[in-house]
Amino acid sequence: MSLEGVGQELPGETAPNAPGRQSDQAFSQIHHAIVRCELAPGETITEASLAERFGLKRAAARAAVDRLSVMGLLAPVRRRGYLVKPITLRDVNDLYQLREVIESAAVRLAAGHVNEDHLRRLARVCTAGYEPGDPESIARFLQANTEFHLVIASAAGNERMVNVLAQILNEMERLFHFGLPRRDRTAELRERHQAMIDALAAGDADTAERINREGLARSKAMVVDALMSTDAMLDVSIGGEAVRR
Question: What region holds the HTH gntR-type domain (predicted)?
């Protein structure tokens, strides 16, 4: 899930060419690029470079940068511009830990309570796949994957749980765009998703929770592997010593 729809005008509000609308479009474009890691984690950018890259007016780029800074996706760097929020091991650990807590409860509550509509929707998105080098196919896969997990949460019958999980998945989207391009996990994920559907339909809460935990562990390992392979992690101080891979 992404925030690309944030700032869309309502009928009769801002005209398409008005400054407010331009800043919304600028926000959408830059946010999109950050989430998809087209603007790489840890990359330094400027308002001028963003304006040139996305064909924006400087005022629109500045307004978008201000919003993204408030969100924590950009951080001002004195005399250099802005730093795209790095992806840290703390980010990965915190988000996966929180997701495991929420989804473990969700799958247990959903087991035995999935109806025909839930099963039909799960079966439809279960077949989604992606091409590792194709950002658009990855984005489509992530949309389907998000729907898969939110349908399960909705079967648990707790709307607040659905909303919390949606926010967690939204925050994790950049992690997935960072890790998924490195290898094709389509077959593995299809098999796991089908096994989850079978367990939920059978009312087998223990198996559903086990499948979920195993899936999260593999997903986390994928992201950590991608993170540890980046230049930013080649020189890391541990106990005062530089570790070089």
Answer: 20-87
